[in-house]
Design a protein that fits this description.
- The chain is α/β, with parallel strands linked by helices.
- It has two domains: about 190 residues, Isopropylmalate Dehydrogenase (3-Layer(aba) Sandwich); about 130 residues, Isopropylmalate Dehydrogenase (3-Layer(aba) Sandwich), CATH 3.40.718.
- The protein is built from eleven helices and twelve strands.
- The strands form two sheets. It has a ten-stranded mixed sheet, with helices on both faces. Strands 6-7 form a two-stranded antiparallel sheet.
- Strand 6 and strand 7 form a beta hairpin.
- Helix 1 crosses helix 9 and helix 5 packs across helix 6.
- The protein is globular, with a radius of gyration of 20 Å.
- The relative contact order is 0.17.
- One of its GO terms (biological process) is tricarboxylic acid cycle.
- Keywords: Oxidoreductase.
- Pfam families: Iso_dh (PF00180).
Length: about 325
């Protein structure tokens, strides 16, 4: 069988450390990938590129349609555009999927969570449209645009995914009580689409109430679908419920391309020290295998991660262990 082409973006900071660990895990499975390594973000600029999303990377992704990515540095409040946002827009990766699954051996408050946040990934306030600052620096503006087509795309994706994965309920999080135009349109479209899925329970919740309920009774949630900015916040909240972003994988899915990634930052202060937690990107490889209909291999990775976490002898310092990045990857590989 021919190998599957895969664009690999190691990223910045701890990115190379954790992506190398994930590739070791992939290589231990009976799957065959043809890796094409490209650089984006600060790594690309350091290599002499003038654009943090260089054409070489774009060409590779267009050829493979499949990406495994480490964290990429984006300056806060200034500097170059977000590479993550640029990639999502360029390749129309309209669906952001963030599973929240409890793992053994963590110090999290909950141990029985299985929530999926589905976030519209290209529009809304988070997309960065219309950002301006007055000449005197005293007034800043940004534009939030919600369209029916984008709303239909992500809402139908969420309901279809829930049905395909045997889920029971879809919760639409919104702020239509105040943002009556933008969030109101998203809610209206959600109600229309929900009528087509009478096999699934459907509920609506205002986003601030959603945040409160997630803290108080997260086990009552199954699939959450929402707009771009709200989804960014809610998915991180959910990650905090199971022990942090180091344990949370992410997928960005479009019709012709899919990108799987660690969702945390690049943590440059610990780069190269072999202590970063690789769990997020290793679980992202499991999502990638799901996407390729390699469900058995995906489940093998998840079970191996759970086993290594439960034993705890080689977990990384962020979750209370004394292990290393590569050592934890080895513990997973031994359990494959």
């Amino acid at each position: 069988m021919a190998s599957t082409p895969l664009t690999v973006i190691k990223g910045d900071g701890i990115g190379p450390d954790i992506v190398d660990a994930a590739l070791k895990v992939i290589d231990a499975l009976d799957v065959d990938f043809d890796y094409d390594y490209v650089e984006v973000g600060q790594a690309a600029l350091d290599a002499g590129e003038t654009d943090p999303l260089p054409q070489q990377a774009i060409d590779s992704i267009e050829r493979t349609g499949l990406v495994l990515k480490g964290p990429v540095t984006t300056p806060v409040g200034q500097g170059y555009r977000s590479v993550n946002v640029a990639m999502r827009k360029h390749f129309d990766l309209y669906a952001n999927v963030r599973p929240t699954l409890s793992l053994p051996g963590t110090k999290s408050r909950y141990d029985n969570l299985d929530i999926i946040t589905v976030r519209e990934n290209t529009g809304g306030m988070y997309s960065g449209q219309g950002q301006t600052v007055s000449e005197d620096g005293n007034r800043a503006e940004a534009l939030s645009v919600i369209t029916r087509s984008e709303s239909e795309h992500i809402l139908r994706f969420a309901f279809e995914m829930a049905r395909a994965r045997g889920r029971k309920k879809v919760t639409l999080a919104h702020k239509a009580n105040i943002m009556k135009s933008t969030s109101g349109l998203f809610l209206k479209v959600g109600r229309e689409i929900a009528e087509e899925y009478d096999d699934l329970e459907y509920e609506e919740v205002i986003v601030d109430a959603c945040a409160m309920k997630l803290v108080m009774a997260p086990e009552k949630f199954d699939v959450i679908v929402t707009t771009n900015l709200f989804g960014d916040i809610i998915s991180d909240l959910c990650a905090g419920l199971i022990g942090g972003l180091g344990l949370a994988p992410g997928a960005n899915i479009g019709d012709d391309c899919a990108m799987f990634e660690a969702v945390h930052g690049s943590a440059p202060d610990i780069a190269g020290q072999n202590i970063a937690n690789p769990t997020s990107v290793i679980l992202a490889t499991a999502l990638m295998l799901d996407h390729l209909d390699l469900d058995d291999q995906a489940e093998r990775i998840r079970q191996a991660v759970r086993g290594a976490m439960a034993d705890g002898d080689r977990t990384t310092p962020d979750i209370g262990g004394e292990g290393s990045t590569q050592g934890f990857a080895d513990a997973i590989i031994e359990r494959l």
